[in-house]
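Ticket #4471: structure export looks truncated?
Reporter: QA, pipeline team
Priority: medium

Steps to reproduce: submit the single chain below to the structure queue and open the exported record.
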Amino acid sequence: MGTKADIFGAALLDFINDEYTEDILVHSSIAEDDVIPVPYLFRDFKEMPLLEQKALSLSKGKTLDIGSGAGSHSLWLQEQGLDVTGIDISEGAVTLSRKRGLKNSIHGTILDHKGTYDTLLLLMNGTGIFEKVQKIDSYLKHLKSLLSPEGQILIDGSDIAYMFEDEDGGFWVDTHRDYYGEVTYSMSYKGEQGDTFDWLYLDYAKLEWYAKKNELKCELIFEGDHYDYLARLSLT
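Actual output as written to the record:
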């Protein structure tokens, strides 16, 4: 297990070492506590939602899987013969990905990463890594710098406006936040509490607006059945 706060990594390594006894508990600023079922993080292609299957099938060339977690997406791409690298801030997740057979797995943050890729993959609410609305520009600028001329960013997101509707169809939001999709999370596992972090749920219209602002073409590729979507950003 990496640092004390590597909740995610600890749970993943327990699972593969046959020490799985409980799931990851998620605490958020907008909802009741929830769980991430650890076995779900080890899903294979046929168990993935259609949105993820679509994103993986559109991936091409040299690919960077950002927030690669247990490595399930990367491993499938590697099996298809793609040159794929996973990157994650969880040291445990990176160790686990390597154990599972992922050839290229990097422990680090995306903003510190350099390289050139044909596909940047950001799945499982990929817009989350932007943290807050005010940081979107700096993230998009950096992602753009990692793209080959014909490269693409495949990113999914969710519009969580539905969580703020009352029974009469009215809309209430926390006025202390810049945008209703800004959420604060922390995770706990087996009595260990992780650090609090910011996570962004971005509606498609806002993503498109920021993409254009940063001279990126934005296309809506797929809409899921629960306010979620897959978008493709490319150099204009």
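Status: closed, not a bug. The export was complete when the record was re-opened. Leaving a note from the reviewer for reference: The two ends are 43 Å apart (CA to CA).
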